[in-house]
Every structure is written in structure tokens, then in C-alpha cells.
Give the backbone structure.
Amino acid sequence: MTATPAKPSMAQLQEREHDVGHDYAKGSPHIRHSSVRERVISGVHDLVGDVIDRNGACRVLELGAGHGTFTDHLVAAGAEVEVTEMSAPSVEVIRHRFRHNPKVTVVHDRGGEAALGGGPIGAAVCISVLHHIPDYLETVKRLVERIVPGGAFLSVQDPLWYPRRSRISMGLDRNAYLLWRLGQGELRRGLATRLRRLRGVYDETNEADMVEYHVVREGVDEQALYALLAPEFEWVELQRYWSTQSGLLQSVGERLGPPTTFGIVARNRR
């Protein structure tokens, strides 16, 4: 009898998709497009500055930092940063990148649990990461428990919850992604992924489906996230905006497209 192959873990899927040579910028609107990138950078600087003004210092936990694109900005804003990352190749890259910077500590969080324990932090920052986490509300709840009074939370670049979005919003979003994917010369992968979406099928062995975990969960429930944060912080703001990989479609969508993506910032932990 032939044994059934073991289902790959989320860490293994992440490592397949995000190896040492992976180009995060290619498929990441918040890195590719200046308008979206500046939104993240501005949010990071404002958040760290606010915590430092209140508490005199800010130790940030940056969850799922990839290759450390925004870690530089956290440090520049005045924070000490503990970085967690699931993909071993990405950990190798980010450790090398910050090997001479004592303000950055890198933790290989293969099981996705390391960030949820440990000592107090001034802020938690999640950049394009919550949609990778199956129980993101529990994760955020446990992160908030680590944040000191006066501290803050920031999450940005997650897809709005699908059931509250219109057919127009979902159609424009998915077709923009498909056109971008085809433009990358990935015709077979793009069409195969699109066909699975139309059939409601998600392949648990395929990184194209499972690394972007939101396709299984139907996005991230921004209202539930707001409801979780509001009692814990003095001030919470939800920001909805258009975001897609294509430069041309990003430019058009910023003027005409419906919101597809959101960020949320919470300040002054009670």
C-alpha cells in the first residue's frame, strides 16, 4: 500500500514561495507602489514617534517581516525591533541584512508561536501578514496582551472581508490580479489559480492557495478586528483603500476603484 504524502506545513509552504531569491517587491503593492508604500512608512513613523513621546522608548515586535523592507523604517523612527519570520530562507536574508545592527533581533518563528510569548513590548506591527494567519483574531488578542500602557498596534495591507464586498469590488480585484499575473508570464499558474477560485476549490498542498491564506478564509474581517482593539486602546482608526499589483491598475484604481484592502492603527493602550 502506498502511503499518502504528508500535507506540507504552513512553514514549508512559506519556504517554497519565499526562498532566498524570492522578490517580495514583485507581488507586493505596499513595496512596489510609492503611494501604498508611503502609507505604510508614514504609519510606522507616526506610531513609533507617538509611543516614544508617551513612554520615552519603543520596543517593536514586527510580525512576519519578510526580508525586512520596513524594519529599516522602524529603526529610523527610533525603535528597537524584534523581528519574527516563519520562512527559514527569509530569516537568513534578514539576519544577514541587520547583522551589524544591535537594535534588531531576528527570531525564526517556524511554528508561528514565538511572537505570542515573551516580555512587554511598546508596539506590535503586522505588515501584510494577518491574512497568512489562520486564527488572526486570537493572534492579535495575544499580541495586545504584551503591549504596555501607552503602547500601540498597527496592521496594514490585508484584504477586506469578502462577504461585505460588492460583486463589482470582488470582480475588479480578482481580474486586476489575473491580468497582472498573466503579465508576469505565468499564464498556466494564473489560469489554474483563477479556475480554482471560481470553483471554490483550495489546494492545501499548493503555496499559491495556502500561503495567501485569505483565499480560504474570505479575507480578513476588519470590523471584528476593530471591535477587538477598541476596548483596549484610547484611539483606533480603520483605513480602507484600493491596492493591486499592477502599476497602471493601481493608478487607475486609486481614483476610480472601490476599496479592496485595509489598515488599522490603535494608539495609547489603556
In short: The chain has a mean pLDDT of 90. Strands lie at 59-63, 80-85, 104-108, 121-127, 147-159, 233-241, 261-269.
